[in-house]
């Protein structure tokens, strides 16, 4: 009897894993989002003041700055593009902001080698009050497909709190996208409030937000007891790390924990990420965001003005060795092996047998780190490559060194 129960449990587990993967199948049978999606998103820089001219300029800059070459291959249009519905109830773009229409914009970004993302919401209106898709799921999915859109971020403002309703509204849109005749990856954005890591893959999402919106700051000034309180206090980089790190087992190729946009290079620019205490971060803190988002397999959506990036922002966003960890084919999210007042230390295995580790100094002062790799479960001798210094720094079973306040060291360990 006991064995039968165990077999049934294993079967149920296999079926549920199978379901997640089946839900992420592209039309040709390959996987949608086999690695975390990357790109540039309009929201933090422009809010809803978007238009086709600025987006084309950003697309051009994605190419000329090296962002596309480094892997940032989407332009994600966020809220504010909508102009209501026509007399056949087809959703339309705002004719003043997008006089050439979204299809022309998609053609333009595709001609640059980029993909186009768009945005809607599982209610009548979006978070910023624009026309959304509830009860028009199939019609809107067909419209997005006819525009050659590649990705949909689907928000949850104006929708009921209940988890079952959320599941069914997201499933409805995921099914509509699958029926649309085009591969459109699906980003679920209900901010982690209904534990989407438990169900978002099964209902057809390729990624799901884990927390409230990121603000351009290190951490919430008021301590919170649960992640949903971050909606009120504002989620900083460290808060999102702390509230996303436990969901590693739910992520993998085709289904990712989305820690929200990168704020790298925003420097406290006013806008949505400047609200709720988003006064800006130091480059050291931005380097930490890039490191932890990469080791935890989060999608990487830059939101700074890529038309004018300073040298530090480029150094951080275009670090191809760090991006390679994020995009590693194994798709295994790092787990947090050490967490205390001073440190968060993350470890993940990589497809070629190497390991990546990230050592984050959470404290307000420089600290001396003494890490024996064995305490992270990594036995043997390793060659240690510093992915921010771009060189091999040592060989052995441990690493001792200084880590500045809020800095993250990121190493690739190769067994020797
Ligand atoms: C919500 C989302 C944000 C952004 C805005 C747009 O707050 O979480 O990422 O899309 O809506 O209104």
UniProtKB/TrEMBL annotation:
<comment type="similarity">
    <text>Belongs to the glycosyl hydrolase 27 family.</text>
</comment>
<keyword id="KW-0326">Glycosidase</keyword>
<dbReference type="InterPro" id="IPR041233">
    <property type="entry name" value="Melibiase_C"/>
</dbReference>
<dbReference type="Pfam" id="PF17801">
    <property type="entry name" value="Melibiase_C"/>
</dbReference>
<feature type="domain" description="Alpha galactosidase C-terminal">
    <location>
        <begin position="343"/>
        <end position="413"/>
    </location>
</feature>
<keyword id="KW-1015">Disulfide bond</keyword>
<keyword id="KW-0732">Signal</keyword>
<dbReference type="Pfam" id="PF16499">
    <property type="entry name" value="Melibiase_2"/>
</dbReference>
<dbReference type="InterPro" id="IPR013785">
    <property type="entry name" value="Aldolase_TIM"/>
</dbReference>
<dbReference type="GO" id="GO:0004557">
    <property type="term" value="F:alpha-galactosidase activity"/>
</dbReference>
<keyword id="KW-0378">Hydrolase</keyword>
<dbReference type="GO" id="GO:0005975">
    <property type="term" value="P:carbohydrate metabolic process"/>
</dbReference>
<dbReference type="InterPro" id="IPR000111">
    <property type="entry name" value="Glyco_hydro_27/36_CS"/>
</dbReference>
<protein>
    <recommendedName>
        <fullName>Alpha-galactosidase</fullName>
        <ecNumber>3.2.1.22</ecNumber>
    </recommendedName>
</protein>
<dbReference type="InterPro" id="IPR017853">
    <property type="entry name" value="GH"/>
</dbReference>
<feature type="signal peptide">
    <location>
        <begin position="1"/>
        <end position="22"/>
    </location>
</feature>
<dbReference type="InterPro" id="IPR002241">
    <property type="entry name" value="Glyco_hydro_27"/>
</dbReference>
<dbReference type="InterPro" id="IPR013780">
    <property type="entry name" value="Glyco_hydro_b"/>
</dbReference>
